[in-house]
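Hi R.,

Here's the chain you asked about this morning:
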Amino acid sequence: MTSIDSKLELQKIIDETTSVIGSTNQTYIKFLQLMNKTNRLMMPNRLIPGVFVIFKYMPTNESFISSNTYYDTFPLVLVTKSYKQGFAGINIHFLDLEYREFLFQNLIKYLPQIRVSEDWKTRLLVSYDHLDARSNFRFFKTCYRKYLWKGIKKRPIVVPFDLWEDMMKSNTMNFKNAKPTTVFRKSRKAITRNFIKGK
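And here is the predicted structure, written out as tokens:
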């Protein structure tokens, strides 16, 4: 299966399995099956910074879950740090498509790429300090999150490099306690606020 075939298959999965609120368990399962079929399935126990992953997550703090605080149950995260209890990174789902694409294109353009013999395993050289040092990445703080392994309900699947842009443009999020439009509006306000403060 070529990269173009994979992209078409991915789009079919997204079209057929996502609902008005975004991803479902079927989206995750079908994506896993696609990766397995193309011999590109990676579900590591420890994540390396610079990879994009998709997974199912539920916050472990009961007061957080029962409050009106919103969260994404199917994060799409560029990992920036891995530690024993979990990992941290940019969940680009918290940005609307315009801001998301701006951030994504700058990440690809300005962060060094670590290439290996298999192109689909390409990742970025990235850390929180890398992102914080350049104005090109100024939107990242709005969607920077930490995730605990004990909150993982479906293990992270590494997204092949050639599918990053397709996943970035898709609405595979699934927010709880807020509609996507509300999340995007609040993110825009936070970005504007940070810009005014010079952060």
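One quick note: Strands lie at 52-57, 71-72, 76-83, 86-91, 113-114, 123-124, 144-148, 152-158, 175-176.

Cheers,
M.
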